[in-house]
Each structure stands twice: as C-alpha cells, then as structure tokens.
Amino acid sequence: MSPGRTGAGRASRTRGPGSTRGYGVTRWGRAFVDVVEGAGSGEPDRRRITQARRYFRDRHAHRLHIGAASVSASVRGSQLDPFDVTLTMRAVDAGTVVDLLRHRDAAGDLMTLTRGEQPTALGELLLPTESADIAADCTCPDEAPRCIHVLCVAYEVAAEIDRNPTTLLTVMGTDLSELLDAASRRSGDDRFGTEDDTAAAPVIDFYGTHATLPPLPAPPPMNPLMDLDGDALRSALRASGISPADVGETLDTLDLLYTRLRDN
Predict the structure, then answer these.
(1) Each residue's pLDDT tens digit, 17-38
(2) In terms of Cα–Cα distance, which of 112, 111, 93 is closest to 173?
(3) Which domain-ending residue is among 153, 184, 215?
(4) Residues 107, 12: contact at Cβ < 8 Å?
(5) What is the pTM of this model?
C-alpha cells in the first residue's frame, strides 16, 4: 500500500472574503458523510451535526492526515487544548474489488477514475456502507459515538474526496496503483486459463415454473441537493437576499429539510 498523505495543505488555504466551504458536494463525498452521520441507522444527532458543520466552516480542524484506512486530525473545541481525532476504516481488499468489478463488467471504472470521475460501481465497492465500517476515537469527554470533533474531521475528509476522488481509495486502505496491479494480474490469469474456466456456469431459467429470481436492487439513499446545479442554487439564494457568508448555513438547512422529508 502507498504511504499516507497529508491533506492539511489544501484544507488550510486562505479563502477570499465571503467565500464558503463545502463538503459532500459529490456523490462519493456525500455517501461518506451519510455513513459517518449515521444515515439509515436511526435519527442522526442534529445538534451535534449543526455544530460540527460550523466547526468545519470555521476551520477548527488542523493537521489533517489521510493515510491507508486511517485519518487523524486535531480539532479546536470548547477547551484550551485541541482534541485529537482518529478515524479507522475497515480496509478493502484490492483483489476482491477488482474481481467484483470484473463480475459486474465494470473493470473500466478504474480508467474512469484516472480521469477524475467517480464511477458508480467502483464507489459502491469502496465506500463504507454502515457506521461499523468506520471506528472513531476522540480525546474529548463526549461519549457519543460521533462527537462534534469526529463529525468535523469527517467533513474535512469528504471535502478532500470531493476535490480528488482517489482520496477515497487511500481512506479505504488501497490506492490506484494497487488496484491496477491487481487488474493486470487477473488479466494474466485469464490469458493462461484457470481451473474455473472448466466449471460449467449455472443455468437459471427466469421464465420457468421454478424460476429463481435475482434479488431486488438496493438503491442508495437519494439526496435532492446532489441533483441541483450548485452554482445556480447559490446564485438563487444570493438573489433572494441571503448574504454570501450565510449561503453555506442555508444549504445545510435545506439539506436537513430534505433529509427529514426523505426519512419520514
């Protein structure tokens, strides 16, 4: 695996007056945030989420380091000394990811990723799907599984994923070169043949009296904000009289309302 990289350099760049920070503006970034916030596993703690979003916008996180299946940072909170946060992900296996991509006839997703895109099939295999996939630890006294400081660091990670999709690979314990190497080895095995080549593929009669139907698909949770033109939405909000400094908080409020509509 490749050594970890530090994302703090990009995360700490000075922004101009009135600029706002965003995270989860791509599907991969949003999916990562949804899992950390606990989407789909009960009612998320909106008070902590709201405060963590303010921490993110006000740049309370420092020394962000994204390594293989591990993220660390320090976050300024209510006390004099910052709190140390560590996120540990359940790492994926590169060979298994490549095998599943080939099974889905989606091996081309790896090349799509090199163009800076976020292919659907690869994202489904890489992204965490439940809160247990991400272990969090913070030195603050809050005993909640997702304290304000943990959420703030998760938003920083999502922002890095938004900027560079290959960050998700590092977060989940692999990298592009490892996946490409695994794909190359699998292609070599196919060229020389394997024992599986002689195995007869099962025949499934979907239209017979004893048909075995495929399982129903499990669509990912939808987020209406993701389907809107972000620039147009921000322009509309500013035209309605909202100051540029409040646009980020207004988008958070809209996200909360859409989440309540979806969950209820």
Answers:
(1) 445 688 999 999 999 999 998 8
(2) 93
(3) 184
(4) no
(5) 0.67
